């Protein structure tokens, strides 16, 4: 993770909240950006917004128009998360539907390479194609479990899913254009969201930098789950960085540059930085790049029958494959190794697991603990941090189930 | 394949056609069974029937209300066929929607085991669970390429898809009930379709027998693509036999028996039997069980640009994994090995392949030829047979593409 010095110092973490404090609530409201204010509950919804009306509402929890969570029990032992069930989290409102009407005409400029140029999606499709299954997870997945009340959407476990991406390997694009410029240490991608007037672009734009080592696995994707990529998920073109937190998978990507430094956009400089509670974000703090090892039980949740039960869940290791998953039905006193089931879709995919066990009547605290191929196991405790990022503590992720 | 002697002799291949000749067209029409008459075009449709209105029509070709094909170019390099894009083929009209309203209450009787009994789907779900990716393909996929005009739906390549099934391994169920009865050589499964009055049940019921060796891989599935199994695809419960033709994957399965003999239902005795053109079906002919090795190009189809092109397709080997795929852009004169891409979902799944190649202007005949891990390759020629089953000849499956 990055420890390079801060280039910009922000006094308040969230640009929208800062604008609100400056008296710019009208601007935010006019552009439908009230949801960017972390404490806002203004847009609590009862039905799916139009742009995701094709999703299956019974599988989803509507936090806001741009923050929609997958219900824990909708995953079961799911290998691939159906598109209709997948969570949604947009940093800015989804673009106009026109954005995906002629996908092949979408353009992306590639900079910081031997021969910089603009490529259409149609041209990218002629270069190469591959498919990768990977977990897409919001940095704040598990935020609801932090007792300090971390600001932002109160995700439980459902700001995550495992999907198949199809597109061109980023490395093939860079190689085709003469390779990375000398000294490049980051891949910097810029989203195609519309920046509302009245807001400082650098405060609000989605532009993220990730280490160049991600070139080995990243792709520019135009399909998700073997369907043209919907605008709700970044269509027509999205940077996909397998094993990295969601924010790095830049949607509607319109520029990709190999850069010496990280971008000075606020979302990179002070956003998505892990720091102690009460501390402001800055670029000397770890950035939310690779995901850590994590798992959770998906079934049973509240109640179940006495006797034989199958305990279901999913486990993943970010950029590392899963080695094993253990399950405890007594809150972590004793553990049994679960069976990992279904096809292995590669190191970036999650693995469903199942444990068959007998449950006696009464209350059981069911928890799971995954270990990746490098031997990293989920810790028992969370690491408290201001924004509630990267929670993989097994204790908080357990479920209390009434048996009988 | 079976060569056991015929137990029943049918003079006409199709029970519906026979009824029609007997003057029972009124019965068929009243029950919406006119599509069972192979030559009928009575139910040519312009929009999706209600029971599959959730599918994506632009990906589909509507042959009839129970025969809906996936368009060749809707597959591209698809790893998993989206449920909305998957073909439909029902031997009888889809049951009432009520059939999937309380899936866990669905019952299946298990016979021919140590302790025969009826199990609810809810009970099955507590036994074990696994997921398997497999190709689902109609026996008549490719029928349109037979020059003798084989009766039945004129499928091109789209009566096939690759999906993920989730359910209980059949072997676990059989073991739990005391194991197979002595002398069992077949797994015989009975579908839950409603048999219209006025028709002889044995003539019309979907009851299929497959060799017991399929016990190692078969499952009783309640999910497809990680969603509850829809009635269009056999929900609430379907027998899935990975690597076997679609008809053996009995829908709405209500009975499963380990038997010494194959069922005497017509669909087994004389249906789905491979025989010379003009010959009636009988049980001494090979039954449509394991699928053979097959592939086809999905893109480009009619036209493409000069210069660099990516040629896409899919390949599978039935019960055997794919070893390699070769592609020719000159009708089979010369071949290049294609790249197999995307995650490997196991031996029963198909593998997307891609060949990057330069195409000169003019007409190109693009063909593909797959080889499985046992060294079986697709033949050049089709094997002509009365009902147009099991076509895997590479020549007929090619596409003529105009370049320039």
UniProtKB/TrEMBL annotation, chains A, B:
Residues 287-394 form the Moybdenum cofactor oxidoreductase dimerisation domain. Its cofactor is Mo-molybdopterin. It comes from the Bacteria. GO terms for molecular function: heme binding; molybdenum ion binding; molybdopterin cofactor binding; sulfite oxidase activity. GO terms for biological process: sulfur compound metabolic process. Coiled coil: none annotated. Residues 379-398 have a biased composition (Basic and acidic residues). InterPro entries: Ig_E-set, MoCF_OxRdtse_dimer, Mopterin_OxRdtase_euk, OxRdtase_Mopterin-bd_dom, OxRdtase_Mopterin-bd_sf, TAT_signal. Residues 368-404 are annotated as: Disordered. Keywords: Metal-binding, Molybdenum, Oxidoreductase. Residues 101-264 form the Oxidoreductase molybdopterin-binding domain. PANTHER family: SULFITE OXIDASE, MITOCHONDRIAL, SULFITE REDUCTASE. This is Sulfite oxidase. It comes from Halomonas urumqiensis.
């Amino acid at each position: 993770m990055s420890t390079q010095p801060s280039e910009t110092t922000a006094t308040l973490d969230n640009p929208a909240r800062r604008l609100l404090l400056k008296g710019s609530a009208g601007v935010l409201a006019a552009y439908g950006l009230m949801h960017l204010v972390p404490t806002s509950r203004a847009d609590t919804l009862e039905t799916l917004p139009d742009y995701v009306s094709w999703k299956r509402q019974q599988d989803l929890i509507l936090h806001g128009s741009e923050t929609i969570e997958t219900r824990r029990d909708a995953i079961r032992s799911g290998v691939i998360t159906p598109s209709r069930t997948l969570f949604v989290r947009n940093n800015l409102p989804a673009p106009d539907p026109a954005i995906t009407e002629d996908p092949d005409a979408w353009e992306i400029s590639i900079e910081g390479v031997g021969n910089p140029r603009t490529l259409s999606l149609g041209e990218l499709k002629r270069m190469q194609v591959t498919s990768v299954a990977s977990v897409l997870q919001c940095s704040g997945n598990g935020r609801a479990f932090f007792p300090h009340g971390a600001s932002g959407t109160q995700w439980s476990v459902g700001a995550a899913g495992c999907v198949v991406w199809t597109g061109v390997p980023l490395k093939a694009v860079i190689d085709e254009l003469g390779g990375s410029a000398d000294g490049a240490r980051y891949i910097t991608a810029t989203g195609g969201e519309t920046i509302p007037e009245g807001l400082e672009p650098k405060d609000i734009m989605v532009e993220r930098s990730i280490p160049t080592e991600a070139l080995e696995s990243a792709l520019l994707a135009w399909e998700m789950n073997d369907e043209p990529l919907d605008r709700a998920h970044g269509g027509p073109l999205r940077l996909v960085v397998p094993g990295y937190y969601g924010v790095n998978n830049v949607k509607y990507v319109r520029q990709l540059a190999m850069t010496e430094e990280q971008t000075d956009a606020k979302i990179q400089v002070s956003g998505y930085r892990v720091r102690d509670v009460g501390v402001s974000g800055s670029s000397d703090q770890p950035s939310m790049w690779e995901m850590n090892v994590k798992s959770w039980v998906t079934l049973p949740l509240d109640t179940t029958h006495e006797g034989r039960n199958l305990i279901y869940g999913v486990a993943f290791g970010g950029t590392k494959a899963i080695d094993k998953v253990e399950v405890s039905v007594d809150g972590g006193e004793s553990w049994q190794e679960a069976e990992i089931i279904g096809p292995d879709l590669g190191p970036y995919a999650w693995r469903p697991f199942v444990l068959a066990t007998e449950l006696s009547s009464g209350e059981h605290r069911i928890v799971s603990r995954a270990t990746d191929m490098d031997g990293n196991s989920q810790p028992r405790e969370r690491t408290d941090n201001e924004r509630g990022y990267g929670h993989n503590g097994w204790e908080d992720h357990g479920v209390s189930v009434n048996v009988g």
